Amino acid sequence: MQIIDALIPLVVLIAMGYVLKRYRFLTVEFWQGAERLNYWILFPVLLFSSLATVHFNVGQVLPALAVVFSVTLLMSVVLWVLKALYGTPVAQFGVYLQSHIRFNTYIGLTSMALIFGAAGMQVFAMIIAFVIPLVNVLSVLGFSQGQGLSYKNIAWSVAKNPLILACLVGILFNFSGMHLPESISQSLKLVAGMSLPLGLLCVGAALQFNALKYAGRALILNTFGRLILVPILAYVGCLLFGLATFETMIVVVFFSLPTASAAYVLTKYFQGDSQLMAAIISLQTLCFGLTFPLWMWFLQT
């Protein structure tokens, strides 16, 4: 029952965003501005605030990071091998890669806060601080062959990512031992507090269910892979690395998240199959409401 109670606020905000966009209560320009505001300001402030004040317990988070990195790299290698075997076009391969390794941070952080409280949110924030650069590099590399990008251009596109910069600055500030004045700290908390609700509304607004009829088998396979296969691999990895129950739940929840809505933007930027990406994002987000409670039930039994 606790899982359902925690899931309802996410569903309500995502559904609200979809309805508001679907019936044009708010303009297209509003949603574009909201996504831009959240991506460049609100969410980076949230990441900085979380990482600048968290107590880094390396012994606690290192095994979890080892599992997350291992599973992410394993799935990437498997997909690259399948690409070579079946000659997958770059426009589709970048979509398949993102649908398996990227994660919806808004849903993840909100879920952690509602289910595990501050402790879960802090561990999750430490994990994503190191994983966001990795998945961004891999995602850009997934499209790089089609664009003829140099490693210099790839490095620059990753280095200017505001989420990566916020994580880096937050970690450096944390290790510096400095403390923010109370007025600045409270201001940042207010700004950060707007990020997750607005982000979930934008997740709903980005759903494109009309694209589902286009995708076919690839849609089903990518949704099954992300929401079922990858969490299974993560759970096995947690057992192999000997993670405690709490860390195991955090890692499996991380891999049970649907892919990021921002994957659609990256796909369009690199002229990938954006219609397929939209369909995968929509179906994964929809199915998350079914698979997530099942994973939580499994982990708690």
TrEMBL record:
TM stretches of this protein: 6-25, 37-56, 62-82, 103-119, 125-143, 163-180, 192-212, 224-243, 278-298
GO biological process: transmembrane transport
The keyword Transmembrane appears for this protein: yes
DNA-binding keyword on record: no
Keywords: Cell membrane, Membrane, Transmembrane, Transmembrane helix, Transport
Subcellular location(s) of the protein: Cell membrane
Similarity comment: family membership: Belongs to the auxin efflux carrier (TC 2.A.69) family.
Descriptive protein name: AEC family transporter
